[in-house]
């Protein structure tokens, strides 16, 4: 039973509780209003689509040490750590490149772009262009780069929303933003059932995962696509070319204790491609993962 359903972060957000749970109307409304406000507040800090957001202001401060909102600082730290841990495969410094290929509006506002997507002058950073000073939440971004928090930002927001719901007294629920979700407790007396969608028939479920007290993230090249003069483009850029990845993995789903790390691992696995992606995922700390390739092969493994 859904106790909340609304649009945020360019996607549908739902909060679901077990059908057997009877949530009083007044309590349910308070939860729905509260979680929506909480997500809206965090989105207004981390989005690159609002010129007055904390992230947009930070991107305009290139070359200067500036104080940033503590919540932005935390996500910048997580993103920078992921950049180092993945040797640049997870790259949060692609903001200018993603704008260049036409993704400069919230996805639901995109129609068609006539910008070239077959050339790029990107020089991938060897070392992080971000410096952080933790004691007073100051940060510096080198000129020539823009931060796009994208999936890691969404994952962090959903994680915060789930914590807010728990603090408000909810024990068993799913907080889901467009397929990236935190699952808490049980659905009655069973784990939650989470469907992995078929990227070639997006309304069809390819397989079902049983999830309890874990997070699930899905990344894919079949979602967030838009038209260009040369055909469809997608938002997953190869960090070393600055162009949409040509990986043979079209979808990756990761089950992890932490939604932020599930987001990172799902994205990197796609960029690495099927063979390297499988090897890499098997070495990570996730519980379970699913890869679906362009040849429609499904690889499902528990670590």
- Which assembly state applies to the chains in this document? single chain
* The CATH top-level class label of the largest domain: Alpha Beta
The portion of residues forming beta strands comes to 25-35%
Q: Looking across the biggest beta sheet, what order are the strands in? A: 1-2-7-8-11-14-15-16
The CATH H-level homologous superfamily of the largest domain: ApbE-like domains
Count the domains: 2
What share of the residues lie within helices? 25-40%
Poorly predicted regions: 105-116
SSE-based structural type: alpha+beta
Q: Report the C-alpha radius of gyration, rounded.
A: 19 Å
GO molecular function: metal ion binding; transferase activity
EC number: 2.7.1.180
Enzyme class: transferase
Protein name: FAD:protein FMN transferase
Explain how this protein is built.
This protein is α+β, with helices and mostly antiparallel strands and 303 residues long. The protein folds into 2 domains: 2-44 and 152-302, ApbE-like domains (T-fold, Roll); 51-141, T-fold. The chain has 7 helices and 16 strands. Helix 1 (25-46) runs antiparallel to helix 5 (150-167) and helix 5 (150-167) packs antiparallel against helix 6 (259-272). The protein is globular. Its cofactor is Mg(2+); Mn(2+).
Provide tags for this entry:
303 residues, alpha+beta, T-fold, three-stranded antiparallel sheet, 7 helices, globular, metal ion binding, transferase, FAD
